[in-house]
Design goal:
Elements: E1 3-6, H1 20-25, H2 36-116, H3 120-202, H4 206-219, E2 223-227, E3 230-231, H5 240-248, E4 251-254, E5 261-264, H6 266-273, E6 291-296, E7 305-312, E8 315-322, E9 333-336, H7 339-342, H8 344-347, E10 351-353, H9 359-365, H10 371-390
Parallel strand pairs: 2-5
Antiparallel strand pairs: 1-4, 2-3, 4-5, 6-7, 6-10, 7-8, 8-9
The structure holds zinc ion.
Zinc ion is lined by residues 224, 231, 233-234, 236, 255, 257-258, 260.
Length: 409
Amino acid sequence: MGVIRTVAQSPFLHCPRRTDAARMLKLKQTKCLMLPDIENLLRLQDADKEIRRLQDEIAEFPKRVAVIEQKLAGTKAQLEKAQAAIKADEAARRKYDTSINDLRGKISKYRDQSLDVKTNEQYKALLHEIQFAEKEIAANEDKILELMVNADTRDKEVKAAQAELKAETAEIEKEKEQARQRTAEDEKLLAEWRAKRDQMRAGVDEDLLRHYERVSKFRGSGISEVRDHKCMACQVMLRPQTYNEVRSGQQTVVCDSCQRILYFNPADELVDQKPEAHRPLRHHPKIDAPQAWYYRAEYADAGEVYLCLTNGGGRASRRVYEIHTGRLIGDILIREGDFRQAFPEDITGAIRLNGLWKEDDLDGWGTELPMVVLDSLQSDLDAARREAASGSHAKPETATRAAPEHAAS
Ligand SMILES: [Zn+2]
């Protein structure tokens, strides 16, 4: 389960063997380890993301306009309320004015009547009526005064609401215009991205594309990077076999847990594992040391080897070890002179390593390097490669007289 398709004729099968050396050399060319379908899917995923972003943005504009329009409606209602209050006050004032006029009319009528009264009681009654009407007038006048005081506040309310409405109307017009422009731009981009996406889809295997789109629909993304043995999207650890399949970059593998299509980017893994800042500086081997260790990526039919060259008594010796097992390959070769002159073809293009052990130890190890020596050489090799990758030092060696018969490429 997990493997959708095996690409038998993948051009990537011709990549160099995935040794550490090859990995370092290919650091910048990480695509070497990626299937073309995966690269296309990554581009497709970017296109899908951009399309979704544009769609969201286009959908967002009317919502923004609606929010301002709602605020605008609120301000309009406030203005109408303030204007209605002014009208109500004016009507009330007219009513009070009318009442006052009526009361004044009554008073003048009572005064006229008081001239004709015959009895004291009648006079008192009229006087009482007049006093009552006067009180009523005073009460109406108080109310008018109150309205006049309120009128200032009402005016201010109306003016503020009018100003707010004006500002909001201008703002909404601006916003609408921007929304119109952005929508037009976004729609143009969207059309371009959709065309690009269609093109990209055509470049991906049909089954894989269907799988990618089904997972994308449910999970928002259909492809996930693998790092530290984990699917970075769902964070579930991969089984070792699945992990190796993804790393090999020769077949399409999906995450058992989230079904996303998995890919591996060696550059990310290396950067993660070895943060540049925390690495100590590497010692550099002495040029005139009596013993020198070298690494070669290809050595005759043996593949990767360590060479141990020594000087002593006017003669040079050469030992060749397989780097993974530490086994001695062939016999110890002795030549006249200094090892630089004696074995120039071995030195040329090789990586010089730190390493100095006693001659007795070398003899004592016999046909196999101890693990501790292998580890020491390996870690110095790693350091040398990092240096080479960062371009700071550790250029491949050149011999004094170079005639490389089987120098590594
Ligand atoms: Zn997953």
